[in-house]
Amino acid sequence: MKLLKDTRTDNQIKNLFQNLPKSIICLSHLRWDFVYQRPQHLLTRFAETFKIFFFEEPVYDAQEQPYYSYLEQSDNIYRIIPHLPTGLNNLEGTTMLKLLFDQFMENKNLSDFAFWYYTPMALEFTRRYIPELIIYDCMDELSAFKFAPEALKDLEQELLKKADIVFTGGQSLYEAKKNQHANIYPFPSSIDKKHFAQARQLKQSFANTRSTGQPTLGFYGVIDERFDMDLIRGIADMRPNWQIVLIGPIVKIAPSTLPKNHNIKYLGPKNYSDLPSYLATWDVALIPFLLNESTRYISPTKTPEYLAAGVPVISTPIRDVINPYGKNKHVAIGSTAEEFVTAAEYILQTANYDWTEIDDFLDQNSWDKTCQNMLAMIKKTITSRSLTSTKQIYV
User: Of these four, 120, 232, 255, 351, which has the most CB atoms within 10 Å of its CB?
Assistant: First the structure.
């Protein structure tokens, strides 16, 4: 066996290393039009570089044969939704998903694709493919969520072995996963500061028309098993003249179990574009999450969004809220209804809230920067892999 010198020029090798796949296939447990959050923020920006195929979990409404529906969401972003017949067991559903995905991938060059996983469950119908790059964006500890599939933990271990690069949705999740992959990076929740800053201008225009004497406390997000219903009920009981506004879909819990106080309003889901208008009417924003396995590693996107809107925040002691937001005194932390009420009253009595330090902190945090940094890590991964594979050439 003879070792030969690589005769390619430095520029030729550099160009080879920087070649990115043309398309990203994103395999998600979330629907694009459910709640606008991390996947939408990132992939909308990545669509400036890649063609995005966003594969959602199946809808069980097909009459006979399974099929995909294709929706052009925006420039370079395509939603792909599998439609399966009802009454299938897990094996039958997986077999049909595999058939549909194989048909989609037919005659396609795998070197043109990166697979971007949000759910390890998608391995059940994609594992036979080895694309140019495999990315795992671990935004949550999904195995801790209510109704999580039993196979999820094993499939995540398989995905961690296959992935070329892993991102995590927060620092605490990174700490939990960092020893499971050699190329892993934390990317906590970011903000579109310009979008949410609209609330500050709107608040000024609303100032002369808003009624006084009834402070408004608000929350937006998914209302599910992570939501502390007793905390909200306690605040409403203690301060019946305060109005509590809750925005978002109710999932995985019975609506009948939610508090029904006269001063609590459930407004349902709202468009991302409308959130600044609602935030402009709030005096205090809430992050009322329980402390349990499903919230152990979360990094709520709403934390910097509330602050960018110029609304003071009170949160339960979620690790990725305490550090950095609570630690830097940008967010008040409370565990009980009494502590939330005390913190809210202090905020309401503070006429001139100092936002200078908070805004300086938020300037370091944007989805644009996160996307740029992720892309840099992706390029670095491709370069490192290429260097390893071309370092020595044997004949």
Answer: 120
